[in-house]
Amino acid sequence: AGCSVETGSSPDPDLPAVLPLRATVTGIIDRDTFRLSFPDGRTETLRILGIDTPEVTPGGNDPGKFDGITDPWFLSLWGEEAALFARQKLDGQEVIIECDRDAGTRDPYGRLLATLTLPDGSDYGEALLMRGLARVYTQETFSLKDRYLAVQKEAMDTRTGIWSGLEPLHGASGQIVIAKVHYDAAGDDR
After folding, report:
1. What is the distance of C-alpha 31 from the center of its chain?
2. Is residue 177 very low, low, confident or very high in pLDDT (cuts 50, 70, 90)?
3. Which of 47, 98, 126, 140 is catalytic?
4. In the annotation, is 55 catalytic?
5. N or C terminus: fewer CB in 10 A for the chain?
6. Residues 6, 22, 87, 111: which is the catalytic one?
7. Distance spanning both ends of the chain, measured CA to CA
8. What residues pair up with 32 in beta bridges, in sequence order?
């Protein structure tokens, strides 16, 4: 899914010549940007390739970014949910990062740009999309774009996460949630 660069031919002089790389997540900057520590002691800031999550503050959200969702406050609730997911899945975890030949290794801000594989072998970006916690950042060129778009479409079609139109249910443990109780409906109660 990412690039494997032959020894001695790393496209980025700041990275080792052999990719993919193992690293430990030492800080969560936001839902799609993290601080990493490598075994050799180096640290990097990494942004997940092809993924965009809502911001946690209403003012940070552009209502036009998420298809059909125009309420910045609503977006910020799902940004908080994505932040909780990031802390649960990544904080202190050893992960594997892979660069993509189509995208390059750095974004315009100098951050490492890569996919991130979780300890269980799953793709973190895909996990965000499956849960409706992110959208595909289509402005970037990357080899997983079609796959990510298909996962996003599935989340949209099944009205998962942000695409549900509902606020996140913090602490909900089951599949069924009582949304409303009508305690004295009209008609015969028998």
Report:
1. 6
2. low
3. 47
4. yes
5. C
6. 111
7. 60
8. none
Q: Specify whether the CB–CB gap between 34 and 24 falls below 8 A.
A: no
Which two tokens mark 42? 């180096």
Nearest to 48 by CA among 120, 119, 132, 129: 129
Is residue 47 scored above 80 in pLDDT? yes
φ and ψ at residue 39, rounded to 5 degrees: -55, -30
Residue type, 112: L
* Secondary element (H or E) of residue 147: helix 145-157
How far apart (Å, rounded) are the C-alpha atoms in residues 97 and 94? 10
pTM of this prediction? Answer: 0.79
Q: Which residue in 87, 114, 119, 90 sits closest to 103, CA to CA? A: 114
Whether 111 is catalytic is yes
Q: Is 47 a catalytic residue?
A: yes
Residues in the chain: 190
pLDDT digits (tens, 9 = 90+) for 107-157: 899 999 999 999 999 999 999 999 999 999 998 899 999 999 999 999 999
Tokens 């996460």 label which residue? 161
Kindly name the residue from 55, 81, 98, 140 that is annotated as catalytic.
55
DSSP for 31-55 reads TTEEEEE-TTS-EEEEEETTEE---
